[in-house]
Amino acid sequence: MGSINYDDSDVLDVLIVGAGISGINAAYRLHDELPDKKYLILENREQLGGTWDLFKYPGIRSDSDLHTFGYAFKEWTGADIAGGAEILAYLKKVAEDNGIAERIRYKSKVEAADWSTEERCWFVTVNQDGEQKNYRARFLYTCTGYYDYNKVLHAEIPGIKNFKGKVVHPQFWDLKEDDYRGKRVAVIGSGATAITLIPSMANVTKDITLVQRSPTYILSLEKYDPIAKVIRAILPKRMAAFVIRQKNIARIYASFHIFRTFPGVAKAILGRLTKSQLPSDIPLDPHFKPNYNPWDQRLCICPDGDFYTTLREGKAHIATGHIDQVTSNEIILKNGERIPCDIIVTATGLKLSVGGHIKTTVDKKTVDPSERFVWKGSMIEGLPNYALSIGYTNASWTLGSDCTAQYVVRLIKHMDKYHKSSVVPKPSNRDQLTQRPLLDLNSTYVKKAEKDLPKAATSGPWRMRTNYWYDLVQAKYGGYDDLVFA
């Protein structure tokens, strides 16, 4: 693909905010299908990668298989469950091979964006390495992920200020291996991060304990899928990648719908699988018997059962119950159990946020996204020429963000064809829309954020996306109901 030279002061066709997995995806689709369009990516950090550049905690990896978490246009050839360094290298290669890297402006924090109806253009204010810079763009596309990069989710832990050791949150990890070597570590939390940390730290700690208020479902998956190996052996490379990707998507949705339809059966199956991997001294109840149904929260994945292996080898322990008090050197549960520790890791969830905290206005009037509905999981009610990238809660994030990217490309083509310069989502029957959360999970960190996130509805194009195949068809061929063009 050839590159287009232009000055940053030009009016851009598309301004992408964020150079993580979604931003690079968006840039590729633009570069591939609309090569004459001028675009830039503004990235707050010093390099691309988003999550995979930010998180430094031990064992950081995807909790989705990389054949679906990776891009449809760039086959993944490594392990099905891969680490952060491998994912970051993959993203860098995609950006470099497709001329995307040269379009990224680093240390560029977007602070405000104002849509001018008169000029049919976004005026974007950016703090670029300490200096204010202004950009103009016909289309603003936020690919900033789903959580706050600057703040962690505050968790009420009684007496945590009494603790004399080190307290660290995975999002701002500042420990080296020698800092926890031979130490007693308590990891508070039961989500994917905690399940990743335990086996990654256990080989060097004196003792490490998972301290959880309530358990979660943890499913072992093979790091290298044996079926994928067979497919690669008999099919050409690109065809094999496509077949493996579709197989894994089918597996995701089959388990999701079966588990949601038959929760009792799902609980029994997951319970038996878990019990078969536990040591005899760790009972299923209460440590691995969640009080919710499978897929009410995301299932936690552990590659090759590494979490369970760590428990069986006696390198890690588990404690379940509400924390009564943290003292100078231990955690005391309300059931009386005491967990001595030198280091506490608060793996208690992320502070959710979409849109990158950009002060967004239309003709100088503030728009609060939390009061607006989301159109087809891609655009916000009342914001002209604006898209946001949101992935799935019941499948890999990238599947959803790619649907948005393909939709945005088609929408721009449609506007060019009919000589339209603006498009804004506007529900024709807003008073009849029934509100529902944007993210369909009952995890604590999701529930805490509901009031701050845009809303979904239960009908029409305002429903949240839930099925990749259906949404991909919509992105490529669907109608433009409740969009107003001008």
TrEMBL record:
Residues annotated as transmembrane: none
Cofactor needs: FAD
Organism of this sequence: Kalmanozyma brasiliensis (strain GHG001) (Yeast)
Protein name: Dimethylaniline monooxygenase
One annotated GO molecular function: N,N-dimethylaniline monooxygenase activity
Record's keyword terms, sorted: FAD, Flavoprotein, Monooxygenase, NADP, Oxidoreductase
UniProt entry tagged with the keyword Chaperone: no
